[in-house]
Amino acid sequence: MAMFAMRRCAVEGCALAAADGAETCLRHSSEAARSAARLAEALAAGRRLADCAAPGIELAGVDLSGASITGCLLAGARISRVSFAGAHLQLVFFQDAVLRECDFRSATLQNVVLAGATIEDCRFEECELVQCNLLGAAIRRTSFDHSNLYASRFTSATLADVRMQDCNLTRAHFHNVDVSGIDFRSSNTAEARFDRSGP
Amino acid sequence: MIFFQSLFSTLGFSNAYLIGPEGGGDAILVDPGEFDAVMLQAIEGNRLRVRWVLVTHAHQAHLKGIRGLRRVYDLEIWCNQPSVLDSPAHHVHEGDRLDLGSFPVEVLELPGHSLDSLCYRVGDWLFTGDTLYAGGIGRTRDGYGRGLLLEGIRRKLLTLPDSTLVFPGHGPPTTIGIERRFNPLLDQKL
Q1: Cβ contact, residue pair A199, B175, below 8 Å
Q2: How many CB atoms lie within 10 A of CB A38?
Q3: Predicted confidence (pLDDT) per residue in A90-106, tens digit
Q4: How many CB atoms lie within 10 A of CB A60?
Q5: B173 → closest Cβ in A5, A111, A116
Q6: How many Cβ atoms are within 10 Å of B189's Cβ, its own excluded?
Q7: Tens digit of each residue's pLDDT (9 = 90 or more) over A129-178
């Protein structure tokens, strides 16, 4: 797979990278809406997206079910009511993104970075969420039921009203996390790591 | 365009990374903990030839695949402690710059997890081995090693741009900015 090239947004003080073919991220671009529409159209048509940098993109109400998204930088994205059901995501960087009412049911996420993201009212049920980075994520009213969370890391995350029933938690990390708001019923919590020691 | 693939080994639960030109050619392999059919398919299926191997430290989970790779490819191996490898290797040090095809590689020494621990920087990508993980740092034998490791991470890694992508020897990818904000072990006093 190809990987996106990293260039910084030209706006002083912006922490995001520049979007493909632009000097700024999409939050600071007058072309933001058009870029989002183009990207959504391309994904909807070909169901594949690779080697793409679109930080700060806003996507709402799009059907990306079954899509393949690899090697992409979508940091700081605002994504709401998007279906990723059955999609395959690999090496996608969503750090500091906001995901609301998104459907990831039966999706495969490998080496996906959701650190610092706000994740609310989302469904990750029956997912392969393997070796993903959710450090510092703020996760609310979200279900991971019946998912494989192997080697995924929730260190320093805030989880409230989160369900992880019947999950594989082998090598999953919950360091520095208040787990009292997580429903772990029928999950193998003994295989997860809850202490603060090194990996 | 650059080809990049993360490869997981179930032997040591470790990551190897394959980097090469999109479309084929000479490739770099970081920390081949295992040489299996998946890795061979990733290499050959993308018309790559592994020419250079970068070893972050001489622990089996990160180099056991070298023996098999050498049967297939003519390798140049780079590490900080060639004497402990059973293959000929170049000795690299802090500040060395390697030109591996179209990939300039910067070498950073970060002892602590092991005496020979290195990180390799390729543009905005940083391969940290067992030095820095998403939300963690490498295990150390004692407080001295831990202090050495933390001091090295703060001085050499946390001074890199926040957007630097970190690809560790175990666990998911991360960035320097994420680790600065959320890694609880980096708050510890030396």
Answers
A1: no
A2: 12
A3: 999 999 999 999 999 99
A4: 13
A5: A111
A6: 5
A7: 999 999 999 999 999 999 999 999 999 999 999 999 999 999 999 999 99
